[in-house]
Amino acid sequence: MGYFAKMRGTTTSPPRVSWSEILWSWIGAFLGISAVAAIHYNLLAGTDFVMMIGSFGASAVLIYGAIRSPLAQPRNLIGGHMISAVIGVATYKLLHGQMWFAAAVAVATAIAVMHMIKTLHPPGGATALIAVIGSDQVHDLGFLYALVPVGLGAGIMLVVALLVNNIPNGRRYPEFWL
After folding, report:
1. Fewest Cβ atoms closer than 10 Å to its Cβ: which of 48, 49, 92, 150?
2. Given CA atoms 58, 97, 110, 104 in this order, what sign does their dihedral have?
3. Is residue 84 within 8 Å of residue 128, measured between CB atoms?
4. Cα–Cα nearest to 176, from 79, 70, 77, 65
5. How far apart (Å, rounded) are the C-alpha atoms in residues 120 and 115?
6. What CA–CA distance (Å, rounded) separates 145 from 72?
7. Contact 151, 48 (CB under 8 A)
8. What is the pLDDT of residues 66-116, one digit of tens each?
């Protein structure tokens, strides 16, 4: 098969999901992001802490909308975010004089390490990138960024995923823990 021929794909698009699946995905995402956002905008307003980061939106897609995916499991959610946060902070501290390089190193290294330790979670790449390109508020957190907002926020979203995804009979979360 030629190089360009591979880009045609080999299958048809996936089947539609049921209205019930759509509704439960919406409810989970709404409650998960609401919980994290409420803490960010109400409890932490006026502090140096950040709770809301963009990569949580992508995590919501996985843990509420693609709950059977290996990328959506608790090990991947928590481990992928936290290791990527540490990598992002370390990369920023070492390479912040060359932001273009720091951004690329952080994301590429986060992907490699998540693969090595079996915690691949695509939003982790964004978590690493946010640690590099984020605001002074994010940079001032240093390695605390891995705990708050990253670890705590992902943990809150996990609790919501466990509660909501197991309400309907046709859904079960997680598929595995470790």
Report:
1. 48
2. positive
3. yes
4. 70
5. 6
6. 21
7. no
8. 999 999 999 999 999 999 999 999 999 999 999 999 999 999 999 999 999
Tokens matching residue 83: 């290791």
Residue whose C-alpha is closest to residue 131's, from 94, 95, 84: 84
**Is 157 exposed, middle or buried, given 0-12, 13-18 or 19+ CB atoms closer than 10 A?**
buried
Q: Which two tokens stand for residue 89?
A: 């902070």
* Distance, C-alpha 67 to centroid of its chain: 13
Retrieve residue 111's tokens: 């992907």
Q: Give the span between the Cα atoms of 77 and 67, in whole angstroms.
A: 11
pTM of the predicted protein model: 0.94
Task: State both tokens at 129.
Answer: 């990138």
Q: Which residues of the chain have pLDDT under 70?
A: 1
Nearest alpha carbon to residue 146 among 157, 130, 133: 130
Instruction: Return the structure tokens found at 6.
Output: 């591979």
